[in-house]
Amino acid sequence: MLQLKTATLTQKNSESTRMLAVQEEILEKELGEIQKVLLAMQEQQQKQLELILAIGKTGKLWENK
After folding, report:
1. Which has fewest Cβ within 10 Å: 3, 11, 24, 56?
2. pLDDT (tens digit, 9 = 90+) per residue, 5-45?
């Protein structure tokens, strides 16, 4: 009887471990996608800041003329 309980617990533990491994893989993929989106957003912000600075410099040139 004890061997059956041990075998059952071992089986459940193995299944749980496999499920956790699958969930980990999914989360790692999702994290990778989130990181790509955040990087793209950072790059977009950088371009916007560069554009704002360029516009500001152009405005100062017009003021000086």
Report:
1. 3
2. 899 999 999 999 999 999 999 999 999 999 999 999 999 99
